[in-house]
Specification:
- One of its GO terms (cellular component) is phosphatidylinositol 3-kinase complex, class III, type II.
- Pfam families: Pkinase, VPS15-like_hel, WD40.
- This is non-specific serine/threonine protein kinase.
- This protein is of the alpha+beta class and about 1550 residues long.
- It has six domains: about 1-100, 2-Layer Sandwich (Phosphorylase Kinase, domain 1), CATH 3.30.200; about 115-200 and about 210-295, Transferase(Phosphotransferase), domain 1 (Orthogonal Bundle), CATH 1.10.510.10; about 320-345 and about 370-535 and about 550-570, Leucine-rich Repeat Variant, CATH 1.25.10; about 615-850, no CATH class; about 890-1055, no CATH class; about 1110-1395 and about 1405-1490 and about 1530-1550, Methylamine Dehydrogenase, Chain H (7 Propeller).
- Helix content is about 35%, strand content about 15%.
């Protein structure tokens, strides 16, 4: 571009940025006074920019070629970390414009800005400059005008090379016309020259090569910049450069020799050689001077780390603009904080001195505050400065980042972490850097708006100042002139109010600050004496004498003392007790700082007043601090002033204070500050307190006695000390250690007696016992004998109380004490503690009068705290809750997804989804599934819950279950109108968010699709229908809610369930959560989702006969065996039959995969023998267990594929007619592969709806039905056998599990522990466990013995109370009525039982155990006042259903299953043991013999059969057929009782037939 310009060209001074293309830039000011291109600072909405303007010399001048070059250059510079290209390049009719980001300081500016650059920082900037040039040259980019003004430096010393000008400035200049140089290159007018000598051509000379800028020219300029960086002045002006070309000037002698570092000198001299070919490339310089000029950690680690912190686009961070604050400085501090342990290791490792990992133990409770503990992850330790650092290293570079970020932080937590980092880096800095580079930044945070930051800044500054070993002369007066003025606002009487917490921390720190200030003063005096500190007046320097130094030192010390005195007095007299308490920690340091006379005036004069303060914690702290003060003041002042106060404090009403006084005595005694005579007196007083009931006081007294004996001779110890303490000892110990004294002490006076004696002292009127204590003025001692306790310890013996004068009142109180347990050996203890009790009692009374009641001792009224109550009215609450549940807004419990799932999703392609669609089922199957989704399932669904991540992915992320959101960044919910998103339409409601950038790395976890550029939400309703693929599992899976809806709900904290239910308009999340929880408690989810609660009567109900005349009053109902109906709809074995709790219908579960619902009212009217509704699990799945959700019409069915279905029956029974809606699936859960539930129970507990499942893999799983989340899992021992059934007690405190090996396992559900295990002798499977929900219930067990019997147990005592035994069972004696404790049994016992029990006989099956059991208690009359009548219904493999009468066993009958010719059995009672009653069935001889039809297993009596009577053959056959139709022809698997409208017995068998008998 230079070829088109000349010295007569229009000057750039008239250029401006008032063109339409730059309308978004607002002019601020002009930069520099260049003639060629004018630089302007302008403001853009995203920050400041620099616009460089060049005016065209004439209108037709074309800039296209330069624009093209600059665009290519910008593209290449985008990848160079240390280069800053132009953001806009444009040409207009009058000129060209280049726009780039504005950075506050260039290298030229930085050299003259405080804090001045240290050696390591200059090397770091030189390194970055060489890296920038290397990267540009590697891309064939040459700068052409490298100078300090074109090198930009950020506040954290990141360097940018900018304003590349090789594409438009001339490469060569005429040597004889310096005006060209001034026009193009002398922007500042300083006449400094950085151009290589070869760029100046003599008259008529032609440039070599192509006439462009080469790499060697840039290297020369870099050498000049580095030289100026280290010298802080340029090495060439234009005239000097011409002389240098001719050999008349050498900067090596005049300038470069001043650089201390020899390697830096060599580097610069090599770069500024005259011959271009003798210079090296930037890459070679970096490699050759590695480890010499540039430390090893610059390469790789430091540059990459600094670049990641500097560049906001790395890691896809959002860019902070001028109008918003996204916490970028906070993130930088957070990153360095979390990486500090690695940074410190790499910085020290590269230096070759790897520090040992700091060992850190947590601080002790009463440890000193300083040195502080640095709390950085993996780097916790106490702050200690590194030994004698001479120069700074890479730690200073990192420190610069932290201090530059601190000022821009948005959160107080980031500033707190920044202060931790400053302290950690300060350990590794030179002393000068600590004071110049760290303290000023910490001091600015002393006035932060956050109290935590103020406290952290104060503590950090105190610690850093204390770590400085050598103070430079410039920092001589850092305390009086800098630190203390900034701490003035922390004083209580300052104009700015500071909280007591901050003042308390200042009180903790002031002692350390004073010690540090005194040390600095001494160092400055040493420097003055040495002569290294300049005087204030240079003219008098020669006349300085040592006396002048002393006077100056005294003057400085006086100023410092006065400054600290002001602060100390203000804190010592603070109105807040916590501040004064903290001040006591600093008292000993301040005493030493102020010196003896001044300390008495400033510090000690205020301390005595602390003992009059009602705050007992202040007094405790006083006695902890007084030991240091005692050492300072010496023995005389101690005994004259401090000791009387301490002895008086022994009678403080607060026992903590008493203990602290005695501990202080011990510490002073260990230091040897007491005279012998005072020691005896103190021992006499303190030894009495060994009889105090408080163990801490006793231990402290023993410690004092031990400490007092430390400096006594053997003679003194045994002649004086032992006599004083002998009354309190059982035996005199051989040594006087604290432990031995404690072991030798007698028992203390009980607390009850102390309290009674206090009452006696309070109410004593004429009694003589307390007179001596009353006459004694103070509980202390002085020069006179009468002030000591009236009775010395030497005079105490068992008869001391009897010798004392007493009157009737005293005797009366002593009798009360005797009745309360005071023995004669306790008498002397009461006398010894007499003065103590008297003083404590009366001080307590006087203190109580003067005290205002503490607000913490009573209920605080909110109005006292200025809180105005807000009344919230609930409106339409029920409807709002119901609507929220119907739309699935409360659908919770989705499992968190793992990274593995997200990666699986990310690897799934559209082709996989298409393939899945191609595998879709036939058209009818799809139609049935769509109809099922649309009609049968009308509430929002939930995915299956599985245990393994792979299962979770297949269940949650199949194409049918997750919306296809790969096509758009806007996610649209799918489904028919009946299946709604939990939040309605996308972004519906009041939560509208602008389009936000998302972190794409972690967004995989929140979505079921590929990561894409952006996601957004909008408030538009969108409806669509997409093809669905089949569920991947056999069991039916319903669609989950839209992933966008889920993500938005989990992400948005402002999601509220029930906004419309109340009139609260605020946005406080805590209040909204409280209102939501109140609504949920008022309308629990079971009320709406599982249907209304069925109210059950707590009393037994009367069971009626169908015919009214059959119901005589006072006689309980008994089934007659009349067949009412048979149902044969099931095509496989019926496993369970259950009757609803309101007796409206019953349900049956079968191996054919169905649960059928049977209407009772239809049976009554003989309308239909068909089931009303059928719920079907998947094809080929057997229904294994069935249970009703307590007090509802919902049931839980479990299949052998591991599925758990919670189904609601919509039943309406009004006016004698019943309506059954289609069964609705409410919840579904999937157990892991190979696991399925074999038994299930349900109960409600603590606002939870709990479903308990026992699985075939010996696990017990508890689920919360409302959220389908797992509450707990118990693992039963596998060797106990497969679970078959279990029961839970009525409070849900324990569970009893029965297994296929006859084992009973007892589990505690509160602590999730297996408590005990027992096993039946027969080791046969247990079929049923039944525990009535009444007080002190009996436990009913069928199975276990291998015989057809029911055992009834008092399980608390483990005693079998009753046995109901069928006729085909053997009496195996006590083996039926006793259990073996499995936990105490020897190994091999289980195996031995199997060996004997598994031998089937020829005439019977292996297990005759009863399969079905009903226990019921019925009312005898209408009133229901009587106790009730209990009966049992049983059924099993002998095809018979029996009724057992518990009150009249002889009335028991066989309801169904007797042969046509079989006589009715009889029932007898026997009592083999005092606790056990056995009701057994006796089979009678058959009345006639008929052909047995396949009932070999029916009877084991082996009775002989008579020959048949003469009868027609056809008659016999028809009679036999009729009889067969009336009873079961296979093993009966379950039995149930229907109480309303009249009593009926329901039984179901293995062939799938259900019978009903009256």
């Amino acid at each position: 571009m230079g070829q088109g310009f000349s010295l007569t060209t229009l000057s750039a001074g008239s250029a401006n940025i008032d063109v339409p293309e730059l309308a978004d830039l607002q002019y601020e000011k002009s930069l520099g006074a260049a003639r060629f291109m004018k630089s302007v600072r302008a403001r853009h909405k995203d920050g400041l920019v620099v616009a460089r303007v060049v005016m065209k010399p004439y209108a037709q001048f074309n800039l296209d070629i330069y624009v093209k070059r600059l665009l290519e250059e910008r593209k290449l510079l985008a990848d160079v970390p240390n280069a800053l290209g132009y953001h806009r390049i444009l040409e207009t009719a009058v000129g060209g414009y280049l726009v780039r980001q504005y950075i506050h300081s260039s290298l030229y500016d930085r050299l003259s800005t405080r804090p001045f650059l240290e050696e390591i920082e200059k090397k770091w900037l030189s390194f970055q400059l060489l890296c920038a040039v290397r990267d540009c040259h590697a891309r064939n980019l040459y700068h052409g005008d490298i100078k300090t003004e074109n090198v930009l430096v950020t506040s954290w010393n990141w360097l940018y090379l900018t304003d590349f000008s090789a594409s438009y400035k001339p490469a060569f200049l005429p040597e004889d016309n310096p005006a060209d140089f001034s026009f193009y290159f002398d922007m500042s007018g300083r006449r400094t020259c950085y151009l290589a000598p070869e760029r100046f051509l003599g008259p008529g000379a032609q440039p070599e090569g192509e006439g462009v800028v080469t790499w060697a020219m840039d290297i020369f300029s870099v050498g000049c910049v580095i030289a100026e960086l280290f010298l802080e002045s340029p090495i060439f002006s234009l005239s000097q450069l011409f002389k240098y070309r001719q050999g008349e000037y050498d900067p090596a002698h005049s300038h470069i020799s001043k650089i201390q570092d020899k390697d830096v000198r060599e580097l610069i001299l090599h770069m500024i050689q005259l011959g271009p070919n003798s210079r090296m490339a930037a890459e070679d310089y970096l490699q050759h001077w590695r480890g010499k000029v540039f430390p090893h950690y610059f390469y790789g680690f430091l540059q990459q780390y600094m670049h990641s912190i500097t560049d906001p686009s790395s890691g896809r961070k959002p860019v902070t603009t001028a109008s918003e604050h996204l916490g970028e400085p906070d993130d930088r501090i957070e990153q360095i904080y979390s990486d500090f342990d690695k940074i410190s290791h790499l910085l020290s490792n590269n230096e070759g001195n790897v520090p040992a990992k700091p060992q850190h133990s947590p601080p002790k409770p009463n440890a000193r505050l300083f040195p502080l503990c640095i709390d950085i992850p993996n780097y916790q330790h106490q702050a200690t400065p590194a030994p004698s650092l001479a120069v700074d290293d890479g730690n200073l570079i990192f420190l610069t980042i932290v201090v530059s970020c601190l000022r821009g932080t948005a959160r107080a937590s980031a500033r707190l972490r920044g202060l931790e980092l400053l302290l950690a880096f300060a350990e590794r800095l030179t002393d000068e850097a600590k004071l110049d580079r760290v303290v000023p930044y910490v001091a600015t945070l002393l006035m932060d708006k956050s109290e935590q930051v103020k406290i952290a800044a104060l503590r950090t500054m105190t610690q850093i100042l204390a770590m400085v070993h050598v103070v430079s002369p410039i920092n001589a007066y850092v305390f009086p002139e800098y630190v203390l003025p900034r701490l003035e606002p922390y004083l209580p009487d300052s104009s700015t109010a500071v909280s007591p917490l901050v003042r308390m921390h200042y009180a903790w720190c002031i002692g350390t600050l004073a010690t540090t200030a005194a040390r600095y003063l001494d160092m400055i005096q040493a420097l003055r004496a040495e002569g290294s500190l300049p005087a204030a007046d240079p003219e008098t320097e020669d006349d300085l004498t040592s006396s002048y130094h002393r006077n100056q030192f005294d003057s400085d010390r006086q100023n410092l003392l006065e400054a600290f005195e002001k602060h100390t007095k203000a804190l010592l007299t603070d109105s807040d007790a916590s501040v004064r308490r903290a001040m006591l920690r600093s008292v000993s340091d301040l005493c030493v700082f102020f010196g003896s006379p001044r300390a008495n005036d400033v510090v000690l004069s205020h301390l005595n007043t602390y003992l009059n303060d009602p705050d007992w914690m202040l007094k405790c702290t006083f006695f902890e601090a007084i030991v240091g003060v005692a050492v300072f003041v010496g023995g005389a002042s101690l005994e004259g002033y401090i000791l009387p106060l301490m002895v008086q404090a022994l009678t403080d009403p607060e026992e903590f204070v008493v203990e602290k006084v005695i501990r202080a005595f011990s510490s002073i005694a260990e230091l040897g500050l007491f005279q012998r005579s005072k020691t005896w007196e103190l021992v006499d007083i303190v030894a009495r307190l060994t009889m105090h009931p408080n163990i801490w006081i006793r231990e402290a007294a023993a410690q004092f006695i031990s400490a007092a004996s430390k400096y006594l001779s053997v003679a003194d110890t045994h002649s004086i000390l032992v006599n004083l303490i002998r009354p309190y000892l059982k035996v005199v110990p051989s040594g006087f250690s604290e432990i031995r004294i404690l072991d030798s002490l007698k028992k203390p006076l009980p607390r009850l007696l102390i309290d009674m004696a206090s009452n006696w002292a309070m109410s004593a009127q004429k009694g003589m016992f307390w007179v001596p204590a009353r006459q004694q003025q103070t509980f202390t001692f002085g020069s006179t004998e009468d002030t000591l306790p009236t009775i010395s310890g030497r005079e105490l013996d068992h008869r001391v109380l009897q010798r004392m004068p007493k009157n009737e009142e005293d005797e009366q109180w002593i009798r009360k004490l005797r009745q309360a347990g005071m023995a004669t050996e306790d008498d002397f203890k009461l006398v010894a503690l007499r003065e103590f009790i008297w003083r404590v009692t009366h001080r307590r009374r006087s203190d109580a009068v003067g005290l205002t009641p503490s607000k913490f001792n009573s209920i605080v009224a909110l109005k006292d705290l200025g809180i105005k109550p807000l009344t919230v009215l609930f409106e339409n609450a029920q409807e709002t809750v119901d609507r929220a549940r119907d739309t699935g807004a409360l659908d919770e419990g989705y499992r968190p997804r793992t990274i593995r799932d997200a990666l699986l999703d990310a690897s799934t392609t559209e082709a996989d989804a298409q393939a899945a669609r191609r595998i879709d089922g036939t058209q009818p199957e799809r139609r049935e599934r769509e109809e099922g989704d649309g009609k049968r399932i009308t509430i929002p669904s939930r995915p299956k819950f599985v245990s393994s991540p792979s299962d979770l992915r297949s269940a949650l992320d199949s194409p049918s279950d997750v919306d296809s959101i790969r096509r758009n960044s806007l996610q649209v919910p799918r489904g028919s109108p009946s299946t709604q998103s939990p939040i309605g339409s996308v972004g519906a409601g009041e939560h509208m968010h602008p389009l936000r950038h998302r972190n794409s790395a972690m967004s995989l976890l929140n979505r079921g699709d590929k990561a894409h550029a952006e996601t957004g939400t909008t408030s538009t309703n969108a409806f669509g229908k997409v093809d669905t693929a089949p569920p991947r599992e056999g069991s039916r899976t319903r669609q989950p809610a839209s992933p966008l809806a889920l993500e938005q709900r989990h992400r948005s904290p402002s999601w509220v369930h029930f906004r419309e239910a109340h009139n609260y308009t605020g946005n406080d999340p805590a209040v909204l959560k409280l209102l939501d929880s109140m609504l949920l408690e008022r309308f629990p989810s079971g009320e709406t989702e599982f249907g209304n609660r069925i109210q059950l009567s707590s009393r037994p109900q009367l069971i009626k006969y169908k015919d009214a005349h059959h119901s005589p009053t006072g006689i309980p109902w008994r089934p007659e065996g009349t067949l009412v109906a048979t149902f044969g709809e099931h095509t496989a074995a019926v496993n369970r039959v259950l009757v609803s709790s309101d007796q409206s219908f019953f349900i049956s579960a079968s191996d054919d995969g169905t649960v059928k619902i049977w209407d009772v009212s239809r049976l009554e009217r003989n309308i239909s023998r068909r089931s009303r509704q059928t719920y079907r699990l998947s094809d080929g799945v057997k229904v294994i267990s069935l249970v009703f959700v307590e007090q509802t019409h919902c049931f839980v069915a479990t299949g052998d594929d591991g599925s758990v279905h919670v189904v609601r029956i919509d039943y309406e029974g009004t006016g004698g007619s019943a309506k059954f809606g289609r069964p609705r699936l409410l919840r579904e859960y999937q157990l892991p592969d190979g696991d399925h539930a074999v038994w299930s129970e349900h109960y409600n507990e603590d606002n939870k709806s709990v479903l308990v499942l026992a699985t075939n893999t010996s696990r017990i799983i508890a689920l919360e039905l409302r959220t389908m989340t797992e509450l707990f899992t118990l693992r039963n021992p596998l060797n106990h056998g497969t679970p078959t059934c279990f029961c839970v007690d009525r409070r849900a405190h324990w569970l009893l599990l029965g297994t296929s090996h006859g084992v009973l396992d007892l589990w505690d559900l509160r602590f999730k522990l297996r408590l005990k295990a027992w096993v039946f002798h027969g080791a046969a499977p247990i079929h049923r466990l039944y525990l009535p929900r009444v007080r002190n219930p009996r436990l009913y067990i069928t199975g276990g013995t291998g015989q057809g019997e029911v055992t009834v147990w008092d399980f608390a005592r483990l005693v079998c109370k009753e046995v109901y035994r069928t006729g085909n069972s053997r009496d195996i004696g006590s083996k039926s009525t006793t259990l073996i404790d499995l936990d105490e049994e020897k190994s091999g016992g289980m195996l031995g039982r199997f060996a004997t029990s598994l031998e089937p006989t020829a005439s019977s099956t292996a297990d005759r155990g009863i399969r079905g059991l009903v226990v019921n208690t019925q009312a005898i009359d209408e009133r229901g006042d009587s106790k009730g009548h209990t009966f049992l219904l049983t059924a099993g493999p002998d095809w018979k259903v029996r009724y057992w009468d518990t009150s009249r066993p002889e009335s028991s009958i066989v309801i169904s299953g007797l042969e046509a010719d079989e006589a009715k059995p009889q029932y007898g009672v026997s009592q083999p043991s005092p606790d056990t009653v056995v009701i057994s069935e006796r089979l009678m001889q058959p009345q006639s013999q008929s052909t047995s039809v396949g009932r070999e297993s029916r009877s084991s009596s082996g009775s002989t059969k008579r020959p048949p009577q003469k009868s027609s053959r056809s008659g016999l056959i028809s009679l036999q057929q009729q009889h067969l139709l009336k009873s079961h022809l296979d093993t009966i698997l379950d039995v149930a009782l229907l109480e309303q409208p009249y009593g009926m017995v329901i039984s179901a068998d293995r062939s799938g037939v259900i019978y009903m008998f009256m």
